[in-house]
Specification:
The protein has about 375 residues and is mainly alpha-helical. The chain contains 11 helices and no strands. The longest helix is centred in the N-terminal third of the chain and has 66 residues, at about 1-65. The chain is globular. It starts with a helix and ends in a 19-residue tail after the last helix.
Length: about 375
C-alpha cells in the first residue's frame, strides 16, 4: 500500500513538473513574440545591415585576392567604391528624378482629368470617373473642408514628411554602419554566435551559416543585376513609347524588381495611369511592353542570374509578404524574400535532414498522383 501511494505521488510530481515546463515554455514563447513585435522594425534594420555586410565581405575578399592587399585595406577600397557609386548615381539621377516628381505632383489634377476623358469612352471608365470626379477625393476624409485648418494641415504634412525623411536617413546610415562592422570582423561575430551551441554541433552550425551566406550573396547579386537590367530597359522603352516621366517610372520599376511576385504588379500600375494621360493606345502599348518585359525577366533573366539563389514557392513568399506588410509595412515586403531564404535553409538542414534524417532528394519516395496540397 505504501509503495503504491509513493508511486502515485511520484507520478503526480512528474505530471506537475511536465505541466510547469509546458507553461514556462508557452510563457517564454509569448514574451519572445511580444518582444519581437515591439522591436521588429529595429530587427529588420539590423537584418538589412547583415545582408549588406555579406555583400561587402564578399567584395572585400574579391579585392583581397585580386590586388593581394590586406583585408582591412580591401574593405576600405570596397566602401569607397560603394559610397562613390551611390553618390555618383545620386548626383546624376536625383536631379532629373526630383524634377519629374515635382512636375508630376503639380500636374496630378490635370493628369487625372485627362485620364478621365480618355477612359470615359468605356463603361467601366465612365463609372470610375463619376465615382471620383476630382483627384482630391482620393485624399480628403469625409466631411473635410478645404478652408478648415489649411495652415495646420500644411504644417503637419511638412513635419510628418521631415520626420519620415529623417527616419529613412537614420535607418540607412545604421544599415551601412552595421554592414561595415560585420564586413570588417566577421570572424568575431561568427565565433561569438557559434559558442552558443554545444561543441559537437558547432561544425554543423558553421556549415549551415556558410550555406546561408552563399545563398544570400547569390540572391542579392542576382537581384541587383535584375534591377539594373529591368530599370534600364523600362526607362528606354517608356521613352520610345512617349510615356511621360520615363526615368522616374524606370527607376520605380527597378526598385520594385527587388520585390518578387508583387513588385512587377506594383510597378505597372502608375505606369499605365500616366500612359493614359497620353491616350488609351499608349496605355495599351505600355501594358504590352511591360508584359513582354516581365516575361523576359521571368523566363530568361531570373533563371540565368538566380541559378544558385533562393528557391521559394510563390504562394509561400506572397503570404509572408502580406504578413510582414501588415506587421511592419513596406520594409517587411522588401526583406521577405531573404528572410524566407534563410528560413528555407534552416528547415531543410536542421529539420528535414537532421531531425527527420531525410537525404533531401529532389522528389519524395512516394507517388502523390499529381494531386494538390490538400
Amino acid at each position: 500500500f505504501l509503495m503504491a501511494k509513493k508511486e502515485n505521488a511520484d507520478n503526480t510530481r512528474s505530471y506537475l513538473k511536465k505541466v510547469l515546463i509546458l507553461v514556462l515554455i508557452v510563457m517564454a514563447v509569448t514574451l519572445m513574440v511580444m518582444f519581437v513585435g515591439q522591436v521588429i522594425d529595429t530587427l529588420l534594420v539590423i537584418f538589412a545591415g547583415i545582408l549588406l555586410g555579406t555583400i561587402l565581405r564578399a567584395a572585400r575578399d574579391g579585392i583581397h585576392r585580386l590586388l593581394h592587399i590586406g583585408h582591412k585595406l580591401s574593405l576600405v577600397v570596397v566602401v569607397v567604391l560603394f559610397l562613390g557609386i551611390i553618390s555618383s548615381a545620386a548626383l546624376l539621377l536625383a536631379p532629373d528624378i526630383y524634377n519629374q516628381v515635382n512636375d508630376l505632383r503639380e500636374e496630378v489634377p490635370a493628369t487625372w482629368e485627362t485620364v478621365k476623358e480618355n477612359i470615359s469612352g468605356f463603361g467601366w471608365g465612365r463609372e470610375l470617373a463619376e465615382e471620383n470626379p476630382r483627384v482630391t477625393d482620393f485624399f480628403e476624409t469625409p466631411g473635410e473642408s478645404k478652408n478648415t485648418g489649411e495652415d495646420h494641415d500644411m504644417t503637419s504634412s511638412i513635419l510628418g514628411g521631415l520626420s519620415t525623411v529623417a527616419a529613412i536617413l537614420a535607418g540607412f546610415v545604421l544599415v551601412i554602419i552595421i554592414a561595415i562592422y560585420i564586413a570588417a570582423e566577421p570572424q568575431l561575430y561568427t565565433e561569438g554566435f557559434i559558442r552558443l551551441f554545444p561543441r559537437r554541433r558547432r561544425k554543423r552550425v558553421v556549415e549551415i551559416m556558410d550555406e546561408i551566406s552563399r545563398t544570400i550573396q547569390w540572391w542579392l547579386v542576382g537581384q541587383l543585376a535584375s534591377m539594373v537590367i529591368l530599370g534600364t530597359l523600362a526607362t528606354f522603352g517608356l521613352w520610345l513609347l512617349g510615356v511621360p516621366y520615363p526615368l522616374l517610372l524606370g527607376t520605380f520599376t527597378a526598385v520594385m524588381t527587388f520585390i518578387p511576385n508583387l513588385g512587377p504588379i506594383i510597378a505597372v500600375i502608375p505606369t499605365l495611369l500616366i500612359a493614359l494621360t497620353v491616350g488609351v493606345d499608349t496605355a495599351i502599348y505600355a501594358a504590352i511592353f511591360y508584359t513582354v518585359l516581365q516575361s523576359i525577366e521571368g523566363y530568361f533573366i531570373t533563371p540565368m542570374i538566380h541559378r544558385h539563389a533562393i528557391s521559394v514557392p510563390p504562394v509561400l513568399i506572397i503570404t509572408v509578404q502580406f504578413l510582414l506588410y501588415y506587421l511592419v509595412g513596406f520594409m517587411g515586403v522588401f526583406l521577405a524574400m531573404p528572410l524566407m531564404g534563410i528560413v528555407m535553409v534552416l528547415v531543410k538542414r536542421l529539420y528535414i535532414e537532421d531531425i527527420l534524417n531525410d537525404p533531401l532528394e529532389e522528389h519524395t519516395d512516394y507517388d502523390t498522383g499529381g494531386e494538390t496540397i490538400f
